[in-house]
Design brief:
Low-confidence stretches: none
Number of helices: 3
Strand order of the largest sheet: 1-2-3-5-4
Radius of gyration: 28 Å
Mean pLDDT: 89
Helix content: 40-55%
Length: about 150
């Protein structure tokens, strides 16, 4: 029975497939495996007599090294967002002033923020009193009365 012969461009196709998976999947995991597949294909192009076992070994080692190096780089160079509160809706309101929608009685009340009603915690106040949001705990704002 003839042995399966792997040609260098097979690895490049595998790298392309891994890149497509990277585009569809979150994170930067398959990108590093695609780089390892491309390098393995380049190595096979330079030395076509490498056996399949060695090719798989090279791909495996390069994949692990590339993933570890990518994780290390990501920790050293975190992505800085120009909108760090984008997916933290409640945190966007800290420091803003609103009128009470319902009075604060026994430390509990409500404010209307845009089209939503939020629970608040703070000192007792009458309805329509101006309050400033100082913190958020879960879905409850901590407020203080604005003089």
């Amino acid at each position: 029975m003839a042995e399966l012969e792997i040609v260098f461009w097979y690895w490049w196709v595998a790298a392309l497939v891994l890149l497509i998976i990277e585009v569809l999947a979150p994170g930067f995991f398959f990108l590093w495996m695609a780089a390892a597949g491309f390098i393995t294909g380049c190595l096979l192009l330079l030395m076509p007599s490498i056996s399949l076992d060695i090719q798989l070994g090279v791909f495996s080692v390069l994949s692990v090294l590339a993933i570890v190096a990518g994780q290390y780089y990501a920790k050293k160079h975190p992505i800085v967002s120009d909108q760090p509160l984008l997916n933290r809706r409640g945190a966007q309101y800290i420091g803003r002033v609103f009128s009470l929608y319902e009075p604060i009685v026994n430390g509990q009340g409500k404010i209307k923020v845009d089209d939503s009603i939020w629970k608040v915690h703070g000192e007792d106040c009458d309805i329509n009193t101006k309050v400033r949001i100082t913190a958020i705990r879960g879905i409850v704002f901590d407020v203080e009365k604005v003089e």
